[in-house]
Fold these 3 entries.
Entry 1:
Amino acid sequence: MADNQVRRRILWVGGMIFLCLGIISYRLIHIQVLDRAWYQQRGAKQYKGQIRLLPVRGKILDRKRNILAENLNTTSVISKPSSSSDPSTDPLRAKPGSFLSDSGMDSNGESIQYLKRKLPPGEFEACCKTGSGKPGSLGENIAFVPDTRRFYPQKNLASHILGFAGWDANGYDNKGLEGIEFFYDDYLKGEARWVSVQTDAKRNSLRSWELPSANSGNTVVLTLDKNIQYIVESELEKIYLEKSAKGGSVIAMDPHTGEILAMANKPDFNPNSFQNYSQDRYRNRAVTWDYEPGSTFKIVQTAGVLEEKLARPGDLFDGQRGLINLGGRPFRDWRGFGYLTLEDILVHSSNIGAIKLGRLLGEELFYRYIKGFGFGEKTGIDLPGEISGTVHELEKWSDVSIGAISIGQEISVTPLQMTLAFATLANGGVRMKPFIVDSIYDARGKLVLKNRPQVVRRVISKETTVLLTQILTRVVEEGTGKRAAVSGYRVAGKTGTAQKFDPSMSNYSSTRLVTSFIGFVPAENPRVVISVIIDEPEADSPWGGTVAAPVFKKIAERVLPYLEIPPNTEPALVKIDQKIAGLEN
């Protein structure tokens, strides 16, 4: 009896053990074989994952491959807020403003948030001390990850051209917001990358690996020359401060290709700290400022009259002692001229003479040449925010219009449009499309895009440009542009002094002026066109010939030797003998 009970107990215990072993074996088979993939994935989620990091933007270089915009390696702090510890224990979270609105998901679908972006070195070291003291570890579910920040080593230089990158309205970082950074953002921004992270069994820390650089943005090479840009900006700043001007713009370009060698504006800003400036500082006046040009515009009807052979340079026009009435409005000269030749009208910048030329050309032809020179339309330059200026349709012209437009009123232009008009005279009569990006290369150095000179249309004949160049050379040698003369070189150019319209007075102001000088050099074989336009200078003699012309001179005196353009040793002879891109000579 006792033996049977013992035997039953042994069998029962053995059965239970066998059953337990069977259950355990089944479970092990289920875990290790049947559900192996599921458990591997779940386990991996507990100790590793991937985080999407922002791409590295491409560099921006000048024409000689000097760096104008690049990236600096920095560090950011990330966290998984859904599973992290009490925020009050996190020194970063305890600080107001330590969060940035930049979050996302890792590859496992878990929430990732940046606690701090782009830490400066000192702050990075301080963060290390709050945790374990080791890079990559701040505490539970918090880690350092590699990051970059945009850096402009030349500071304010070419700030309106470069623009800047930062946070956009949707909360995305590293987006181009102004200038080249904005216009070529699709080329510069690169592609997002993923970084692998790892935790220990208790998820107390995260560790990150270095990011690859294969998905960096493309490198953008500008037509800009850093040294010419520096010359232009330094001379513009001097006059801007000296005359307490409201603003100013200077452009230097190659008239034969349309390449922008320099483009400067005042006031400017430092793109490294763009957020510290008001938005009006970001404005690229060269393409967004429309102003009435004044006497520099007189080249348009003069070109039309010569092209149509309505008059010759030596033909006489009555200056009417400096007064003429059109449509009930009196137009006056700065001096009471008698008879003037066509040449002298430009040389001495006679308003009455310019009006006579405009009336000789007639409204329809005048309008055609205005449009032919590109006024009233965008130039097509590869920069954001360009405006077209204002040219009223011919049907809207009044009895006063032809007189006003002849002296650069009742029409608005941009500095770039006026620069291109003089470039048309300098290159033999064709309008070029301006451009500021030469080429784009990918991270492996392969050419992605190449901009080439592009002819828009022929505006006037070479013969007309030769005549006009001779006249504009006299402007500098003996007329209103004497202070633009450069020793050893023949300069062709025109002064301009434009009164600003005052709506409160319904008339033009006698104190608020825009002064300008635009010219090209050497006159006999132009290599560079330079425009200088100063907005509301405070001076006893705030004229184009006294304010803007000397700035042209100083810039040209420094740029010509830099470009290795030798002084003129031959007798004065104007010729247009350089080939124009896209046209037969």
Entry 2:
Amino acid sequence: MFAPGKDVSRLTYFGIFTLQHRGQESAGIAVSNHKRIASHKDMGLVEQVFDEDILQELTGDIAIGHTRYSTMGSSNLQNCQPIVIESAKGKSLALAFNGNLVNAKELYLKMMKDDFAFIGTSDGEIIARLLGFYLERDYPLIDAIRETMRQIVGAYSVVVLARAKLVAFRDPCGIRPLFLGKLNNGGFVFSSETCAFHAVGAELIREIEPGEIVIIDKDGIHSVVGREAICSALCIFEFIYFARPDSEIYGRCLYTARRHMGEQLAIEYPVSADMVVPIPDTGRPAAIGYAKQSKIPYGEGLIKSRYIARTFIKPEQRQREMGVKLKLTPLRRELEGKHIVLVEDSIVRGTTTKGIVGLVKEFGGAKEVHLRITAPPYRYPCFYGIDTGAKDELIAASRSINEIREYIAADSLGYLSIEGLIKAVALPKEHFCLACFDNNYPIPIEQFEGGKFSIEKIRS
């Protein structure tokens, strides 16, 4: 956020609070007053990490914030963002990053040989230290970013606080979202999602283009090409699960797109049932769509605890499994003896879904559960910012749909087709990365090795 004269730390707090769904492991804010960068970050949710006293200490005109969902490096304090790189030459910077570097291990090994000093083990720190290296050697800011972009391979949407400037840049395929907005009373803001603009009193200007660098300073907004765009390949999971339903991408409201997914599911996988029930919260728009198209009554059959984080993006498998029991409670009076259509956004590992089907049948008393999924079978790992782990962790990679149905104990199972998904979002297929469904990776993944903890393994 670039907003001279405004309470930027508080506005940034509101912004990252709105983006809490994108990561619940840690949170942080860095602020510049043009002379120095002050920051605060810690493990936990935004409201746990910050209080009034901390926000009052973070004074300045420019700020960036971050909520972390770890895809490279452990979930610990050393890997919290924003990452601050101090400089004796007055060229300090703070950086926040969403995505995943395919060549993180290769770059880390090379940089260690060149005597780079690392605090943590995240790929975000690799980007920050590369950028700091070039700034220390008196590269102009744009040239330093271009050189950094030339070396990093993968998915990245990055914001940088560099003393008197706020900068954003995006990978040449635009895999992770990034938007530019204008504050209603002056100033500009970048965000991973448009839903945060409402919270801070901003209006959407446009999306940051693949390969673009955007610089904001006292002279206004400047845009240059960092790397030539290779393609437009936004992660389709932003539409299916990750982004909030009140966000917009490519001019499409995600709530509407998810409702259309449910309508298409009802066309592709009809069933005779008594009630359509969503798995809250991301399954709700699709369940409404399924009910509308199928003429089956919609109802709430699962109550979600408002105090538990999203199950899919918890870092450890045991936490995911326990999360199901703590997160959802079945409404037995609504479910008992009924044939239920249960609508979910996706099945990745299968353990969460198995637990939910069990809840609905055993504790809810449902006679039948017909599971409908708004994503196609998730068969291939993501290397671009979703922590799906290795291929052998993905249930659809090694089992047929009927075998998955048997494992999760559903009476029937239907996945939305890729064609149906594209029809629902009403955008060209070429706009998206669908690699987790079709094994067609827009950025080469040959350099990826060692998994999420590859850098820890080097240091141990």
Entry 3:
Amino acid sequence: MADETRNRTNNEGNFSIGHVLLRLLGTAVVLAITAFFTPGFSIANLWSLIVASIVITAIDYLIEKVTGIDASPFGRGIVGFIVSVAIIYFTKYLVQGFDVTLWGAIIGSIVIGIINALTPGRAL
């Protein structure tokens, strides 16, 4: 636990615009893949994909900074999974053209978790 806190503290100084842009790009790619494979999860166009990526990245960043909870689906077990589902589901109310059902958010969160596990770095 102490190592995790120390690593998080050490990484806070590493914040850069390049890191944010890579995270946005990763989120956009993962969302597009997830929308393709997940029933009940659809993105109408490229603009909706870009805006949804920005919204999800911003909400994830805020939750991580305020609560310390890693909102990736497998980041903190069931809590991270529930937070990930909530972020995906409530984004539909903020982004026009981003439509997801509750089951779509649950399945999408699982797909995102699998993609995150297979890729280096972290998208969501």
